Fold these 2 entries.
Entry 1:
Amino acid sequence: MSMEENNRFGDLLKYEADKNYCREVMTLASGQNLKMGAVVGIKSATDEIKIVSIADEETDGSDLAFGVLLEDTDATSAAKKALVIARDAILASDCIVFPNDATADQKKKITKDLEKRGIVIRQSA
C-alpha cells in the first residue's frame, strides 16, 4: 500500500517579500473547490476569485492570472474567504495547479501573467 502526502504550505511558498504586502484575503466565488497552489483570476465585475479561465472568449478578467491560492478552499455551497499570494513571491513549480485542460502554451501565458505581478515559479530543488 502506498501513501501520498499532500503538499504543505512550505512546499509551495519558497519566498515572499513580506506577508502583509504579498498576500490578500479575497472571496472565492461559490461553486468551486480549489486546492492550494491553484492559479486564480479575478472577475472584474464582482472581485470574486475564480480559477483562471483560458478560454479566449472570456472578457471578465478571469482570463488573466492574478495569484495563487495558499490554502485548500472549499466554496462548493457558498462563497468563502481565501488566502492568495498576489505579488512578489517565489513558488515551487511542482505545487502549482493549472487548469486541467491547459496546454503548454497556456501554462506559459499564465506563468507570464504571474511574473508581471512579481510571482516567480521555479523548479523545486
Entry 2:
Amino acid sequence: MNAYQIAMRMEKEAEKAYRDMAEQTVDSTMKKLLLRLADDEVRHFSSFEKMANNESALKDIENFSDKFFAKDIFSEIKAQNKRYNFNQEQVDFYNKAARVEDETYNFYLEQAQIATDADTKKVFTLIANEEKKHHDIVNNLASFVSAPDVWLESAEFYKIVEEE
C-alpha cells in the first residue's frame, strides 16, 4: 500500500467515525461540528485520490476554506446556555479522535518530508495543517464533554473564540 492509499484509508475511517458520532448526537450544534469535520475528511480523501491517479490536487487544497469554523460553533454552544450531560462513550470518542488526528498529522508531515516533488510535499503539508486544526478541535471537544460547565468558563474556550 502506498502513501496515498494509506492516506485515503485514514481519511475514510475518520469520515465514518465523525458521521457515526454525529448520528448519535442529539445536540444540533455538536452535530454540525462533527459533520463539518467529516466533510473536511471527504475533501482530503478526494485530494489524495487525485494524487493516486497522477492528477494534481494542489489547486483543490489551496482552495480549502481557511476559516476557523470551530470558534463559531463553540460561541454558539456558550450562547445557548444549556446544561450538557455527556456519557463516557462520547468522552472516549473525542479522546480517541484527538489521538487519531495527531497520528494522521504526523504521518502527513513524514510523507511531506520524504516527497520528491514540490507539489506532493505541499499537498501533504497543507493537509497535515488541516489535521492539526482537527486535532485541536477534537481535543477541545474532549475537554468540553468531560466537564462542559467548567470548560466553557475556561481560558481554553476564550482562546478558541478569539482566534481568527
